[in-house]
Amino acid sequence: MPLGLIALALGAFGIGLTEFVIMGLLPEVAADFGVSEAAAGWLISGYALSVVVGALVLTAATTQLPRKPVLLSLVVLFIIGNVITALADDYGVAMIGRIVAALSHGAFFGIGSVVAASLVAPEKKAGAIAIMFTGLTAANVFGVPFGTFLGQSFGWRSTFWVISAIGVLAFVGIAALVPKLHSPEEKVSIRGELAAFRSGQVWLSLIVTVLGFGGMFGAFTYIAYTLTEVSGFAAGAVPWLLVLFGAGLVIGNWLGGRFADRSIDGTLLVFIGALVVILALFALFATSGIATIIGLFLMGGFGFGTVPGLQARTMNYAGDAPTLASGANIGAFNVGNALGAWAGGLGIAAGLGYTSPIWIGAIITAAALLVMAIAAASARRETATQPLADTVAAN
């Protein structure tokens, strides 16, 4: 395995940590700045929206630049954002820090996916992307609980200082271990990158990403309420149950990458279909503690197991200009997060109970499965007609 993948995974670990750890520190942050927890929650929402902007704007702005220096610059931006957050003396400055850090997120994963895929043989691209995303999943399993404990014990700012230090380590690792890529003769224009969006398959892949992740996060956003109000777990058990969910993310990410290297569309159809069934069963049996534990683990596994395949599929159909399409897919994940959280909240607000977000997530995921089936069937038709078209052209 190329060591550069480890350096990219470390960068992904730091970015995943800064995105998710604040969820466990909102009470401390709100108290420190004297704002409501709802206002503090905008430090999460503002981050997610900025990820989408960064994924598109920064990726587009850097398409003609060598990829390794761009990655290093994005890590520097990430470090600066977290240092600003750690030093913030009021809520507004903290928000600026979150936005600055978030701008690097989408572009890093978008460009990093292209770089990771270039470090291995073509038939191992999805697996390489999965290795990089292992850093993101590990952040959920190990980093978030530790970061929350650190912030609660030594002040929430200490967590962001540690995240900044992780960013420095990632910078050193990428500088030392990732080879130079994207030589001047390989440069592509922004017009060339935009040409990737002429592909209907790219758009179908992005829609599947939005709906597939939207379904999972629609269920996950309000999972703490489901665990305590429906499943009967004590509030103190929630962090450990979330670690179980994170373990599912890690295993699902690894398996999804392995299987996607054999068949991307087949893997996505199986994983998304399984996720629909799991969410429906989870909602049905949420009053059972054992069923909830199993459902939580499987939801994370099959939900995140789609990530390597979706990223690789988007890049494959983008052809020779995968960078902007890759960044757009990272943005699509975050659009899905926002969609799922909004839709799940509607269910609760309508008085449908704390299992309603899971049911809504199942419905959204079923829509993703339908779109994926259409995309796979269309791709098969295109493949079947291509040899005939080549024969006609040759004659």
Order of secondary-structure elements: HHHHHHHHHHHHHHHHH
Estimate the global geometry from the Cα principal axes.
globular
Gyration radius from CA atoms, angstroms:
21 Å
* Cα-to-Cα separation, first versus last residue: 45 Å
Strand percent estimate: under 5%
- Characterize the biggest β-sheet: none
Structural class: mainly alpha
Number of strands: 0
Count the helices. How many? 17
Query: What's the overall average pLDDT, rounded?
Result: 85
Low-confidence stretches: 388-395
Assign a percent range to the helix content. Answer: over 70%
Notes on the protein architecture:
The structure is a single chain. The protein is built from 17 helices and no strands. Helix content is 82%, strand content 0%. The radius of gyration is 21 Å and the shape is globular. Helix 1 packs antiparallel against helix 8 and helix 6 packs across helix 16 (322-349). The protein has helices at 3-20, 26-33, 37-40, 42-61, 67-87, 91-118, 125-154, 156-177, 190-194, 200-220, 223-230, 238-260, 264-284, 289-304, 307-317, 322-349, 356-394. The termini are far apart. The chain has 395 residues and is mainly α.
